[in-house]
Write a structure and sequence with these properties.
Elements: H1 2-7, H2 9-29, H3 37-67, H4 71-99
Helix pairs in contact: 2-3, 2-4, 3-4
Length: 100
């Protein structure tokens, strides 16, 4: 289970980001337009934290790939790198709506 958590970590970070951003946007939609700025700043801060987590996971997985290891560990490191890279791109893409 630990290997799968490592391998799917980037996608899990993306899941947390998507859910959190959806919740923040839902609350923001219930407020008046003049009070929307703090919610957008919260969305941007949350997105920055999730992007930093995905980038850190990408950095760690690439570092582990360079050291080698058994084939199963390398596969999970490759999966972690791919998932965190996709998650990082998706987090940046989804954050654009809060930044605009």
């Amino acid at each position: 289970m630990r290997r799968w958590t490592w391998g799917l970590g980037g996608l899990l970070i993306w899941l947390v980001h998507f859910s959190g951003l959806y919740a923040i946007a839902s609350v923001e939609a219930q407020t008046v337009a003049e009070d929307a700025a703090p919610w957008r700043l919260l969305a941007l801060a949350f997105s920055a934290a999730c992007a930093a987590a995905a980038a850190s996971l990408l950095w760690l997985s690439i570092g582990r790939l360079r050291h080698g290891g058994d084939p199963v560990a390398r596969l999970m490191d490759q999966l972690a790198a791919l998932g965190s890279g996709v998650g990082l791109v998706a987090i940046v893409w989804q954050s654009a709506s809060a930044a605009i």
